[in-house]
TrEMBL record:
AB hydrolase-1 domain segment(s): 9-221
Native source species: Dyella humi
Keywords: Hydrolase
Classification via Gene3D superfamilies: alpha/beta hydrolase
Pfam family, one: Abhydrolase_6
GO molecular function: hydrolase activity
Name of the molecule in the record: Alpha/beta hydrolase
Coiled-coil segments on the chain, per record: none
Superkingdom of the source species: Bacteria
Record carries keyword NADP: no
Amino acid sequence: MKANSVKNVVLVHGGFVDGSGWQKVYNLLKKDGFNVAIVQNPTTSLADDVAATKQVLSQQNGPAILVGHSYGGAVISEAGNDPKVERLVYITAFAPDAGESVQSLIANPPPGAPVPPILPPQNGFLFLDRAKFAESFAADVSPEDASFMADSQVPWSVDALAGAVTVPAWKTKPSWYLIATDDKMIPPPAQRQMAQRAGATVADVAGSHAVYVSQPQAVVDLIKRAAEGGE
């Protein structure tokens, strides 16, 4: 690693899943000499998830790269204001501006865009239709792994969905963005628009919303570019 490179990486998962999906990314980063920590978001509210992320950040010895997938992008946009965070990496993630939430960003999908198979709330929590999970979330993941992800869903609170970012960290810290061009949860044009608005360095990869599971090397390659501050 270069002398000015950041060696601490904190990984933040999104809605419906937990931190175990990062395992392949974790293994590759560790092999490359990074210190890696994984946040287990309760996904009960944005504030709770930001608090969980800051707790992990507090344990880092030195500056860190904060990586968020999907809803995790909203979490890192808020938690990224922590002084330990030097750089941000968005993996097919939401990058809300001040006052925006995931709920507001998905409120008016473009005509013809795939509609994520989110079931009506149950006691204030959301799930994806298990029968449609693989197709919408993990189309390029092995059927066994996609089935496990569908059957081990973490309840995602509507409060988390509606949690609005106050001061987006991407306005003051450099960011990188991986666009998954086959994503059926967040339309790729929406990803590109958020990445450009954030002034992020962009990489494209042909992959599903679960690109962090199906193509961990592409995710690691972008994190390594961020670690070295490279374009």
